[in-house]
Amino acid sequence: MIKLLLAPSTLAAASLQLLANVLKRVGVACWVLSVVRACVLIYCKPGEYLDVLGKLNGMEGVREAFPVHGRCDLIAIVEALDYPELSVVTAKINAIDGIQRTETLVEA
């Protein structure tokens, strides 16, 4: 029997669950690690959002980052295995030069 452990670092959580369901149908035992997802609203110092965006792209734990119009300057979609790891990722985001403050919205 083939056994497979799927982790969120390889694919988005929804894609992992879909893949696991398909593999189970053909006899592969699969386990999907759960993830904690959050949306981080990022408020940047004036004129610094592009530099901050460049630092966010490729950062471990940041699935996606993009500029927005509205109350904040950037949004980062973050995934972590648990709350302590999420805390580490958000701390790294907060340490980026050019960020004034952040607001983290954890998925319910």
* Total discrete domains: 2
What percentage of amino acids are in beta strands?
Answer: 35-45%
Number of H/I helices: 3
* Structural class designation: alpha+beta
CATH architecture descriptor text of the largest domain: 2-Layer Sandwich
Largest sheet composition: 4 strands, antiparallel
The sequence of SSEs as H and E is EHEEHEEHE
State the end-to-end distance.
35 Å
- Basic shape: elongated
What is the spatial order of strands in the main beta sheet? 4-5-3-6
Query: Which CATH class of the largest domain?
Result: Alpha Beta
Unreliable residue stretches: none
- According to CATH, the homologous superfamily of the largest domain is Lrp/AsnC effector binding domain/regulation of amino acid metabolism (RAM) domain
Radius of gyration: 16 Å
User: How many beta strands in the DSSP annotation?
Assistant: 6
Q: Give the % helix.
A: 25-40%
- Could you say what the CATH topology of the largest domain is called? Alpha-Beta Plaits
Question: What is the mean predicted local confidence, pLDDT?
Answer: 86
Structure description:
The chain is an alpha+beta fold and 108 residues long. It folds into 2 domains: 3-32, no CATH class; 36-106, Lrp/AsnC effector binding domain/regulation of amino acid metabolism (RAM) domain (Alpha-Beta Plaits, 2-Layer Sandwich), CATH 3.30.70.920. Helix content is 31%, strand content 35%. It contains 3 helices and 6 strands. It has helices at 13-25, 49-56, 83-94, and strands spanning 3-6, 29-32, 36-44, 62-67, 74-80, 99-106. The strands form 2 sheets. The chain has a 4-stranded antiparallel beta sheet with strand order 4-5-3-6, with helices on one face. The chain has a two-stranded parallel ribbon with strand order 1-2. The N and C termini lie far apart (35 Å). The mean pLDDT is 86.
